[in-house]
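Sequence only, no structure available. Ideas?
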Amino acid sequence: MGFLTPAFFAGLLALGLPVWLHLLQQHRSTPVPFASLMLFERRLQSSVKHRRLKYLLLFALRLLLLALLVLAFTHPYFERRASAGAAGKAVKVIAIDHSFSMRQGGRLDRAKQQALEAARSFAGGDRVEVISFGAGVQVEQNPVTDPAAVRAAIQGVRATDERSSFAELARALRATAQTLQVPVEAHVFSDMQKSSWPPNFADAQLGGGVRLIPHPVVEEREANFAVESVLAPARLYDPKKVRVQVTVAGYGTGPARRRVTLAAGGREIESKEVDLPANGRASVEFFALEASYGWNRAEARLSPADAFPDDDVLYFAVERTEPRKVLFVSEGRGSRAQLYFRTALESASDAAFAMEAMTAAQAAALPLKPYACVVLSDVGAMPAGLEENLRRYVEAGGALWVVLGRTALARDLVPVSGEQVRESRYSPREGERFRTVAALDTAHPAVRSAPRWEGVKFFQAVAVDPDGARVVARLSDEAPLLLERPVGEGRVLVFASPLDNIANDFPLHPSFVPFVVETARYLARMEESRASQQVGAYYEIRAAAGAGAAVEVRDPRGQRALSLTEAAEVRGITLAERGYYEIRRPSGFQELVAVNPDRQESDLDVLPAETLALWRNTGQDSAGASVGAAAQTRRVSLWWYALLAAFLLSLAEAWVGNRHLAVQEQRMKA
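Reply:
I predicted one. Tokens follow.
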């Protein structure tokens, strides 16, 4: 027997309570009237008689009741050996690798054929579980004794584009042994790819209840060429001013020459030859990418094809578009803030933005959907309809940048986002009385590329109450300078000081231009776009989870990747297969996401025999052995029984106590 919390045995000190009740509280002296004590001899009265225990049965019941309560709190248990009927024979687990590398040369078909042969060799009555594994583990069939169900589950395994992980397989096998409390005999059918091995050997340990029997479908490394990566812009503004770099890799190969072809929109653009060193890589560059307006499905192909053609192509997506429109709304044209902002945007290397400036009155009835983001620069009282127009724009997925200045104090709340405007704090230039940036959240995309704000002086800033918004920058007096709040499907960014070189000298510092450009990219969602993603990556489709307008997602097969409920609620999706995902937002924005398998799957090198032997040794050595002390025994807890006995004993104690009380009352009446 053992105890989970033996420290509670200190509660046995409470056993002194019944002793106190039955011994020290027994003496009761009843005063008797008497005329005189003059003739009585003075002597000491013995108290031994009064200290004798009475009601021994009640005393014993109370002691036992307290002891049982203490015992329940110590959580007693004992370990019982599993009987043959309960434990049964070892569960046979058939684990089939369904990762991307198993597509090469019919490897998955060979693995399934070997698994069927192994299943036929099992004895009748054996419980067999079928699983498939890649980046995670999928149960194809729970443990059954039906051979037909096992065969159907094996035949149902399909290849995926995931990367395989022996660490995830080991974790699943350990969990199976612990859950079923029986030995596990794991038959693993895989190409035993070296890249699937975890960096930490401990992550692949099997545990004492698992016996590993590997069934490699290949015995040695096979040479393979692959398109390893493509470095290309996600958006294209001038097809003649673009650079696309394609890297080709050889795994276990000798020196070779390969042709790399760049294609977009279903047509070939250019081809170049590249010389690869033995077991190495080489890059080739293309300086033009003729693509039609809108999203284009582009790819880099390798020829001639080798024995694994699935990785001889790498997909990427590029959007041919005009510079994104940014609407700058202010009290009047030609302001300093407008000049500084326009100059910063136009200095971007890719000329991604085109700014339009107008007054608040002009923007009141303007359709905002064509604009990538709207900048509201120190606008006070806004015309009727402008704020509602901005709110609808942001809730549908647009972005608003509110710059606060002295004029904005005419309002009590920040437009659209609703933060409380408290006051305008002004510091005169005389005597170097100014504030600086004391805290900066460099994880935010708006300041990630411009983290050095130490020398910027802020003479005036509007104090706002963040009220739960994300504060990106704070001034030296802890006042928020830059904060962000999601609104509907869009986002609102608030900057609490003008951009005019009067309230601050920010426009004169090197960090101003990258701050403006990167903030515009962030608000226009341009920083979220990459030419390609990796299978298994998480892709965000809305700013926050929760009910909202539905976002339609089509997978590479053209089917809906989300249900109607998920399309309106989930924040993102997992890119589960290679190809192109189409994302259509309620604001009208569309995205094309290219997805490729992890190129570590292209390295077909196999695990060394020594590593495989060490892996097997982390489990059980013989098929007939039991799973060890931890797996062959079952812990039986006794605290519930102790608590039940204490409850029954309390009823008995109450009954006996009531009887003694009744007898005592009768004696007193007599």
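The chain has five domains: 2-29+45-81+638-669, 91-220+606-623, 224-314, 324-523, 533-596.
Hope that gets you unstuck.
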